[in-house]
Amino acid sequence: MKTVFSETQLAHAPAQEISDGELKPAVEIPARAEIVLKTVRDRQVGDVIAPEEFPLRHIQRVHAPDYVAFLENFWQMWTAVGRSGEAFPFVWPVRSLRVDTQINHIDGLLGRYSMDAGTPLGAHTYKAARASADTALTAAQLLLNGEQSAFALCRPPGHHAGFDFLGGYCFFNNAGVAAQYLRDNGLNRIAILDVDYHHGNGTQALFYDRPDILFLSIHADPKDEYPYYLGYADETGEHAGTGFTRNWPLPLGTNWEAYAPALEEACRWLLVYKPEAMIVSLGLDCFEGDPISGFKFKSEDYLRLGERLAKVGVPTMFVMEGGYAIDALGTNCVNVLEGFAG
Ligand code: Q9C
Ligand code: ZN
């Protein structure tokens, strides 16, 4: 299986994040990608290739042009008002406030285009996020070229980012951009299976009213875990997309044995849907050692996950999402890829 990776993704290197209401050392850091890349090489998963640079219009197929422009111009605007350190959003247009006005100040724009205060932005965030989206697009192109599988070693991750907002360490929805690209290049039914510990709220929302992109997600119950405001079992799609979203919220403390039945159910939906390609939003944060998560996967369980996904039997691309136990991240990620490859 080929791995797609760009060094440009390492340029987004936050020092701190706001977590649990306080400033802490950032966990979504370049070392995540570096350990996965090293393990891909050490365990000879396959060639590592650089992404192509895709035109912005592919990102704008799932993201609002004004949001994309905001990200592109962010650092210039942030420094223009005298700020020099990395940025965090801090004011939001919640219920009763307006989102349709023209805002000039960067603080207002930052809140308008974000969902949380936990996602640091820096001088190089835009170009890294762009390279991350290009990484996913290149993996999608590999499937279109006839490869049976591909690994997009994406960072920053994507599945919390929506049509016009960032959040949860995510800026562009890499899996969503790739799914739309596959649709735009002749495939009719795409399935996204999100196995990150956190619900993929951004991806779900992008395709909620569409039957052509199935969204399945297994994650920590949002009543107890981020992102709190989406990912419940009664969210099953709307309009033409009714029935094409499925969520399996699971309790904190879930181990592989308790997770496997939900995975089986998700695989049954895949069997019925018969996608022409599958995109796995591959978070590795269900791991027992993850510093911000509450599931209990062991490293071997990731082999089982890969094996089960292979049995679905469709061309599959893996898009890396979360996973913050740096020491085990390479092992866990490559376990999925090896389990899949057999
Ligand atoms: N106490 C991804 O895994 N904050 N994003 C958690 C922990 C947000 C995770 C706070 C976590 C976002 C891609
Ligand atoms: Zn996650």
TrEMBL record:
GO molecular function, one term: hydrolase activity
Top-level taxon of the source organism: Bacteria
Keyword Zinc: yes
Alphabetical keyword list: Hydrolase, Metal-binding, Zinc
Occurrences of domain Histone deacetylase (ranges): 28-337
One Pfam entry name: Hist_deacetyl
Cofactor(s) listed in the protein's UniProt record: Zn(2+)
One GO term of the biological process aspect: epigenetic regulation of gene expression
UniProt entry tagged with the keyword Hydrolase: yes
InterPro entries: HDACs, His_deacetylse_dom, His_deacetylse_dom_sf, Ureohydrolase_dom_sf
Record-linked PANTHER family: HISTONE DEACETYLASE 8, HISTONE DEACETYLASE HDAC1-RELATED
Similarity comment: family membership: Belongs to the histone deacetylase family.
Name this polypeptide is given: Acetoin utilization deacetylase AcuC-like enzyme
Record organism: Roseibium marinum
Highest classification ranks of the organism: Bacteria, Pseudomonadati, Pseudomonadota, Alphaproteobacteria, Hyphomicrobiales
